[in-house]
Amino acid sequence: MDDAKAFEQFKECAVKVLGVSPDKVVMEANFAEDLDADSLDIVELVMELEDSFSIKVEESELEGVDTVGGAFNLVKGKIA
Amino acid sequence: MFYGSKIVGWGSALPDTVVTNADFEARLETNDAWITERTGIKERRFGGTTSSLAIEASQKALANAGLEPKDIDLLILSTTTPEQTIPATSATVQAELGLNCGAFDVNAACAGFVYAMVLANSMIATGVKRILVVGSDTLSRITDQEDRSTAVLFADGAGAVIMERTELQDNAFLGWDLGVDGSLVPILYCDHGGYMKMEGREVYKKAVLAMVASSKQALERAGIAASDVSLVVPHQANLRIIEAATNRLGIPIEKTAIVLDKTGNTSSGSIPLALVAAAEMGRLQNGDHVLFCGFGAGMTWAAAVIRWVV
Predict the structure, then answer these.
(1) Model confidence at B304, in pLDDT bands (50, 70, 90)?
(2) CB A43 to CB B38 under 8 A?
(3) Where are the O-(pantetheine 4'-phosphoryl)serine residues found in this chain (chain A) (predicted)?
(4) Closest Cα in chain B, distance from residue A60 (Å)
């Protein structure tokens, strides 16, 4: 899957779970500050991403992931 | 299986002391908005003992069913906070209620009350006539009140139902599912003499997945579609978990019994507390399908589907 297509899929998940408009889901967006997402929203997003991309994300891997870009890179590393 | 079972009485009990989010705000680095947003809890009750709350809930259930202590043939008490290592706390409850029957405790963490109902149903199936099923916990005793991540969640409370034998064709206990994934013990546990330790986010995720899978299994075994469920009575741990799980099950949140805003997480007490509140509010009609769903440390989970009979 190319990056652009993967990001579109990532964006769909974020829009669905976080209830934000698609144009807000950009690489630089900070979950807490820009997307109003708390720690449980991020768990929900991860669950959606796991289903959507058929991947598994461990809790420890989320340490320090606070932006869309950080989360997308984590997903990308698992589908590559 | 020779007999069916149905619920014929219910009651619940909460201690008098109300602890609000503002009370925690005064001494821990937390606030009402944070707690409410992440948990749905506004206040909870601290006090009483596991047996005293169990006794009060049981007496109300007996009165509600119009039964006397002599009418009860077995007592099953679900608790994770027994008063002593031995005997089982159910012994104290049995004596105080004036029951003349067998009694034992069950510990399946926060899923314990559903486990106890499934157990009661199975024993009734082979002939026992009436079983008093109680869930009672005093989690405030095993919670570190200085730990803001857990102190705001756990509290004290109890509830009870009386299950009665029916002819097989009148069976109202339609389907159930029990499960444990013991590899997840490290994410939520409490050692003897210690306080509960919890990996909140991991528990959240596993709880949602377990609730959904177990509920689906119990519904399938009961032959009931999710759309035919009138009321979900989930374990009252966290409103966000309940919302996420019911959303995945395709059941509107309006069809869910919620008391955690007033009770916090009372482990074994939570499901019967929510059931009794729903019954008292007139939310249950004859023939309604009720889905119970519990999850907790272990991780342990349980779901059951009944038909409400009045």
Answers:
(1) very high
(2) no
(3) 39
(4) 10
Within 8 A of A39 by CB-CB distance, chain B residues are 38, 200-201
Q: Does residue B67 have a pLDDT over 80?
A: yes
CATH classification at residue B222: 3.40.47.10
Put simply, whether the predicted model's pTM sits higher than 0.90 gets the answer yes
Q: Is A38 a catalytic residue?
A: yes
- Work out whether strand B289-296 and strand B188-189 pair parallel, antiparallel, or are unpaired: unpaired
CATH code (residue A22): 1.10.1200.10
- Cα dihedral B243, B245, B249, B255, rounded to 10, equals -40
B20 and B151 together in one domain: yes
B138 and B11 inside one domain:
yes
DSSP string, B75-125: EEEE-SS-SSSSS-HHHHHHHHHT--SEEEEE-BTBTHHHHHHHHHHHHHH
- Taking the CA of residue A61 as centre, how many other CA atoms within 13 Å lie in the half-sphere pointing to its CB? 14
Q: What is the pLDDT of residue A58?
A: 87
Structure tokens of B207?
């709880």
Q: What is the interface size between A and B, counted as CB pairs within 8 Å?
A: 23
Q: Which of B34, B148, B153, B204 to mutate to test the interface with A (most CBs of A within 10 A)?
A: B204
pLDDT digits (tens, 9 = 90+) for B273-283: 999 999 999 99
Which positions 16-55 of A are in contact with B (Cβ < 8 Å)? 38-40, 42-44, 46-47
CA distance B132 to B279: 18
B248 lies within 8 A of chain A by CB: no
ipTM of this model? 0.83
Task: Write the residue in B37, B202, B209 that is nearest to A38 by C-beta.
Answer: B37
CB atoms within 10 A of CB B216: 15
The per-residue pLDDT for range A42-54, each reduced to its tens digit, is 999 999 999 999 9
Res A59 pLDDT > 90: no
